[in-house]
Inverse folding.
């Protein structure tokens, strides 16, 4: 389970044990923005991952999508 | 046809062949293997190629290699005495006056020229003397501190 | 985070690579020479926008001494993205940017290259290459690029998300971030201030030009020596662009003479590789300063419109910020990051951010220290300064009132963990500089800035010597003293003297994969790997001691470099009570207790533990010439934990001074044909020692919970506040709000004269 904040202020609750299952569920529910989401970084409880992996998700985990950032 | 130049570098006789249009910086780095002197701009603006020519602070990129004939040159490789670092080298290390270090040889040569001429410069005098040496990493603060500490 | 007492972390040992650097021995990119080496030279476009009609290389190929010639059409076609890690970079774009195909898209873009036995011959040969162009009109800023009927750079590029039948555009993408209702917010505000800001194209300004040597053997295996922030990236990108298998490419990073983000992408390496492959001899390529300015990524010039609404008591209620960033000739400016950083320090219940990525006929922008953030900070912090003035509130108090803290939601979504913004603001408020009196023609400016803390992939190995010394190796080139910090971490974890730790940077064969040096990530993420690798060594030593004492490894204790036997353990030989053993003593028995001890760790760290900085700038302005001088400067920053305080201070000072240069003098000056007119250090005016006072630094430490020592990335935050700190100081000194950078003497003088009652000649 996770609370997912999509770009554009829409928030949904998704039942997924890990990040890959979350993406699969998002692709099913929001096929139009699925590609866009895959190009973004993902913040899991505040920590930003440039490359979403196989992290576990708890019921209260908050997920945000943020633009990928380059450092210098 | 190349010119045959005889000179003195860091206290030792040295000789090399060069074209008439070659810079002393190129001769030092590419012919003599003295790569401690760095090339940052080739227009005399950054100070990374600072050397002492007959004791005078010059940018090696603006000196033609043949001009070295019969003169004495000091490069960064000649600053330490055998296994003893020059006071400037020590204070630069202790004050963390370098980050990437590319400008450091130029600064040490330039600072040595200053201290040779004026053993106890003020902060302002030090800053203006070193205005010909660019550093992009440090903001100059620790470099100035290191030079002033070496001057004591 | 526990209050751990450190023995080594927080001290200031002399860096291990220091003596090589002060004696000139350290080898940078251009300092190597390989046997049989050729010299490579690039032919560059004299036009900012042009179709390439034909390239005739026949004269060059026939010249004695010329061993290889390369043109863009010979590069393999790619259509892939490579995970840069921090941002997926379009490889195709990178290949096209590195050497033009059918169009030249910026003045100075490479169109061909030559390798010859001497540099002189290579230059002569390059001059004989005839390129015929059909000139096109360039677009040199976001306004020109987005005007109706603007000349289009890429005929197949549409704005991202536009329908397939939309016309081609120079607007690569538009991103929106919002919260609440800005219109309602502004309606509710007692004060609304709106301003438009512009910042110029500026360069990272590293003193060492790009340099590399590449060789490609008869077996197709290649080696590249180069000055880079990311050897693994160079390997992957060069192999892909040159059409080689990365498994056959090794990259050896030299010492690097500054990068600041500008030495992340590849410019010369794939070209050198292809020339080397053709000539079957190593090829050395070194840029001159002119090329560095004209043809390596500067950072984006920008246009930023800021509108902020506040209540009379200073509470911020709404923000609308529109960003247009120049991406250069290929898409991908840091406008998204800029937007995320712009209002990150503040609680805004309502905001609307729109970020436009616009292509223009300039080199593709490269990362420059907190990419995107300094410009955004300049705009927002200038408006915040005006709000403080209008409301007659202290500049720091206004920010304290609206400052985000742990648990508050960042504008990009997630809640902040522990952050040091309020601590930094309080430290600024209590600093003597804030209350010091000002002299005539002097003004004081204050501004804050924000940057994330890079994470991603890092590896480290720690090898123990039989004498109890240790070697630590990572693949991260050392730009600012990270080897010293890594040695200190190993010394701390193993309880051995820091002088007996040998830190080194490996090549892509010897070091475990690591993402690049940059993004303020090395001390944080690679540091974590180093600490874990040292812990791995410690655990192995416990197991070895356990063997010696014939006890369970879990029963062995550790204290500051000593292995502690459990109660009751006996020396096997003598039968006496076992005494603690030092690391050196156990290391001496490695062969007898199981073999060499090698510790390793690898990890993927998230971006966590962002940093905030606050700067106070005093400027003195000469009213007759417009020239300004920084007379006092204080930079305060939350670094989490300063491993080596001298290098932390150095990063803060260096970043602050780059920002000061950006604010006061630096800019690319273009002529009408889109060619840079000041491509040298004389006229691209970076700060020199006589421009500046000492830069006072204050280190604040609010621990980053993700890192064992609490470390936050340091390197990038310091360039974020200075642009606005200087502009706000200028406002204070002259009464004039400057919305355009740089604040160079002619610009300042023009505004001073326009504002003053005319008295010339009277």
């Amino acid at each position: 389970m996770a609370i997912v904040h999509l770009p554009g202020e829409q928030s949904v609750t998704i039942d997924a044990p890990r990040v890959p299952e979350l993406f699969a569920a998002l692709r099913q529910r929001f096929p139009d923005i699925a590609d866009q989401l895959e190009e973004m970084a993902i913040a899991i409880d505040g920590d930003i991952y440039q490359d979403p992996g196989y992290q576990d998700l708890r019921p209260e985990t908050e997920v945000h999508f943020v633009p990928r950032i380059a450092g210098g | 046809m190349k010119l045959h130049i005889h000179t003195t570098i860091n206290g030792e006789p040295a000789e090399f062949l060069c074209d008439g249009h070659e810079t002393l910086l190129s001769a030092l780095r590419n012919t003599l293997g003295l790569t401690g002197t760095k090339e940052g701009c080739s227009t005399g603006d950054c100070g990374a190629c600072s050397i002492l020519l007959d004791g005078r602070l010059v940018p090696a990129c603006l000196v033609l290699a043949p001009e070295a004939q019969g003169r004495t040159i000091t490069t960064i490789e000649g600053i330490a005495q055998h296994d003893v670092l020059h006071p400037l080298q020590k204070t630069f290390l202790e004050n963390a006056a370098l980050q990437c270090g590319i400008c450091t040889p130029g600064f040490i040569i330039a600072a040595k020229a200053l201290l040779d001429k004026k053993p106890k410069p003020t902060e302002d005098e030090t800053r203006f003397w070193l205005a010909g040496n660019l550093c992009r990493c440090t903001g100059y603060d620790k470099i100035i501190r290191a030079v002033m500490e070496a001057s004591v | 985070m526990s209050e751990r007492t450190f023995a080594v972390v927080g001290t200031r040992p002399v860096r291990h690579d220091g003596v090589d650097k002060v004696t000139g021995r350290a080898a940078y990119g251009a300092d190597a020479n390989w046997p049989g080496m050729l010299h490579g030279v690039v032919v560059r476009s004299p036009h900012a926008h042009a179709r390439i009609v034909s390239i005739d290389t026949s004269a060059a190929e026939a010249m004695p001494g010329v061993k290889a010639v390369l043109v863009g059409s010979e590069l393999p076609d790619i259509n892939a993205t490579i995970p840069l890690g921090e941002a997926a970079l379009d490889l195709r774009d990178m290949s096209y940017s590195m050497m033009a195909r059918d169009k030249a898209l910026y003045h100075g873009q490479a169109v061909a290259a030559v390798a010859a036995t001497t540099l002189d011959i290579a230059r002569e040969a390059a001059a004989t290459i005839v390129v015929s162009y059909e000139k096109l009109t360039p677009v040199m800023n976001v306004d020109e690029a987005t005007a109706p009927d603007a000349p289009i750079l890429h005929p197949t590029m549409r704005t991202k998300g536009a329908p397939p039948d939309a016309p081609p555009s120079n607007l690569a993408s538009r991103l929106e971030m919002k919260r609440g209702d800005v219109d309602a917010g502004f309606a509710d505000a007692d004060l609304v201030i709106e301003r438009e800001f512009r910042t110029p194209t500026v360069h990272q300004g590293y003193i060492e030009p790009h340099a590399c040597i590449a060789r490609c053997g008869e077996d197709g295996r290649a080696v590249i020596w180069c000055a880079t922030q990311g050897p693994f990236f160079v390997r992957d990108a060069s192999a892909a662009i040159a059409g080689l298998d990365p498994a056959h490419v090794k990259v050896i990073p030299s010492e690097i003479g500054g990068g600041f983000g500008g030495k992340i992408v590849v410019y010369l390496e794939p070209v050198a590789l292809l020339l080397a492959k053709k000539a079957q001899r190593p090829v050395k390529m070194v840029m001159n300063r002119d090329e560095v300015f004209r043809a390596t990524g500067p950072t984006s010039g920008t246009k930023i419109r800021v509108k902020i609404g506040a209540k009379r008591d200073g509470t911020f209620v709404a923000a609308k910020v529109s960003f247009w960033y120049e991406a250069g000739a290929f898409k991908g400016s840091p406008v998204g990051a800029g937007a995320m950083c712009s209002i990150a320090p503040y609680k805004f219940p309502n905001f609307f951010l729109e970020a436009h990525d616009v292509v223009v006929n300039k080199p593709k922008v490269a990362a420059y220290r907190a990419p995107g953030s300094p410009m955004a900070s300049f705009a927002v912090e200038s408006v915040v300064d005006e709000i403080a003035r209008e409301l007659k509130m202290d500049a720091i108090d206004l920010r304290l009132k609206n400052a985000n803290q742990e648990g508050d939601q960042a504008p990009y979504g997630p809640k902040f963990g522990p952050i040091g913004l309020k601590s930094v603001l309080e430290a600024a408020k209590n600093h003597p500089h804030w209350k010091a009196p000002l002299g005539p023609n002097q003004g004081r400016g204050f501004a804050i800035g924000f940057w994330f803390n890079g994470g991603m992939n890092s590896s480290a190995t720690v090898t123990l010597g039989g004498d109890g010394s240790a070697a630590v190796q990572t693949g991260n080139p050392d730009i600012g003293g990270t080897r010293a910090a890594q040695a200190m971490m190993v010394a701390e974890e193993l309880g051995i003297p820091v002088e007996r730790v040998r830190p080194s940077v490996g090549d892509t064969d010897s070091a475990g994969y690591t993402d690049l040096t940059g993004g303020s990530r090395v001390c944080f993420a690679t540091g974590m790997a180093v600490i874990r690798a040292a812990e791995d060594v410690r655990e192995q030593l416990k197991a070895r001691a356990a063997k010696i004492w014939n006890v369970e490894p879990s029963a062995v204790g550790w204290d500051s470099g000593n292995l502690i036997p459990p109660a009751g353990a006996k020396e096997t030989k003598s039968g006496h009570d076992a005494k603690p053993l030092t690391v050196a003593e156990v290391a001496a028995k490695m062969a007898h207790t199981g073999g060499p001890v090698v510790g390793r760790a690898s990890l993927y760290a998230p971006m966590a533990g962002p940093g905030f900085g606050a700067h106070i700038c005093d400027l003195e302005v000469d009213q007759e010439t417009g020239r300004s001088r920084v007379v006092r400067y204080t930079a305060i920053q939350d670094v989490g934990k300063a491993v080596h305080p001298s290098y932390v201070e150095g990063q803060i000072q260096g970043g602050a001074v780059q920002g000061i240069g950006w604010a006061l003098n630096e800019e690319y000056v273009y002529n009408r044909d889109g060619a840079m007119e000041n491509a040298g250090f004389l006229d691209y005016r970076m700060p020199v020692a006589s421009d500046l006072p000492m830069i006072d630094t204050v280190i604040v430490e609010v621990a980053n919970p993700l890192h064992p020592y609490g470390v936050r990335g340091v390197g990038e935050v310091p360039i974020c506040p200075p642009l606005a700190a200087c502009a706000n100081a200028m406002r204070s000194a002259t009464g004039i709000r400057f919305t355009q950078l740089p604040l160079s003497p002619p610009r300042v003088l023009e505004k001073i004269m326009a504002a003053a009652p005319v008295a010339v000649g009277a």
Notes: Chain B has five helices and five strands.
